[in-house]
Amino acid sequence: MTDSLLRQWTMLQHIPRQPRGISAGQLHDRLRCEGYAVSLRTVQRDLNTLSSEFALVCESVGNEQHWSWLADAPVLDVPGLSPAAALAFRLAELHLGALLAPEALRALRPHFEAAKRVLNQGGSQLSHWPNRVRVLTRSQPLLAPDVDPGVYDRICQGLLEGRQLYVHYRPRSRGSELRSYRMHPLGLVMRDPVSYVVATLRDYTDVRQMALHRFEAVELLDDPIAPPAGFDLDAYIHEQRAFDLPDTNEPVALHLRISAGVAEHLTEAPLSEDQRIEACDDGWWSLRATVPLTAQLRWWLLGFGQAVQVLEPQALRDELAAELRAAADLYDE
């Protein structure tokens, strides 16, 4: 393989996709770092030659000419994408698309398209796999609220770069009055159809959860974020259980009387590591487990209706009994 072919292949690898670009001078510096002793004029000639064969564009940026791949240009992979790798990209597109930052999603789009082409060519049993795998939720499906794409992009950019944001937000608890804040984004959490920005506001250290769809405008600032000392997103979610609205930091000993169907379900998918289920003489089952006392636990218990009876804690039993009586009264009206 000739030096000029290797050099030009290296150049193609260093040229980014739109909207980013690279100048001939920057490419010249990168080639020199990789051991290619050529002149800037040679780099410029190579670029003109390559642009006649590949999807390259040249745009003026100030006093320089910047080169880019077209945003939708096909991926140049040598060797080509294998069916197994194509399958991984296809499943990532189907099931992880909502979790990827917009910039990452844009960068992967050509790979997703290449994966579709490989799988559509047939010849591999793996090509059928995306049509045979689905992910379902047991909860009632809800339509996701609309989120402004520009707002989402800037929030994700602030998270990626650790920069503050100036946001216009419409909190649900304040009569839909539009509020403006300087915000320190700390994380993005997807919970069912609603996404939340975990953040602090202004110079306060208390961490807030702000629904993504309630942001109406976002401006990216140059100032770096100032997270609370020791903040960790996983600890905030799993240890502090901030999204579960816990009543107490200490778990409670839950004692339930459950039907045979519920017992079978919870035997396969336990509530906790210490869960114990025992048969009763009357055809019902007794369940004991140590669990956090949260709003989510209440909703889950109420969802079983007459198939679950809370025996302990007494306060939880009384609360759910009152809730069910009030619900029954609505149907008696």
TrEMBL record:
Domain WCX, residue spans: 251-328
A Pfam family that the UniProt record links to this protein? WCX
Q: Matching PROSITE patterns, A to Z?
A: WYL (PS52050)
Q: Which residues form the WYL domain?
A: 151-219
Q: Out of the domains of life, which is the source?
A: Bacteria
InterPro entries on file: CBASS_pafABC_assoc_protein (IPR051534), WCX_dom (IPR057727), WYL_dom (IPR026881)
Among PANTHER family, the record links this protein to:
PROTEIN PAFC, PTHR34580
Q: What is this protein called?
A: Transcriptional regulator-like protein
Q: Which organism is it from?
A: Halorhodospira halophila (strain DSM 244 / SL1)
Specify the taxonomic lineage.
Bacteria, Pseudomonadati, Pseudomonadota, Gammaproteobacteria, Chromatiales
